[in-house]
Amino acid sequence: WLIFCLMLLATVISGYFDLHTTLYNADITKLSFFILSLCYCSSVWIGIKTYKVYKQDYTQSATVGWFISESCLALGMIGTVIGFLLMLGTAFTNLDVSNSAALQDALASMAVGMSTALYTTLIGLVSSLILKVQLVNLEVALEE
Question: For 51-59, what is the mean pLDDT?
Answer without folding.
Answer: 86
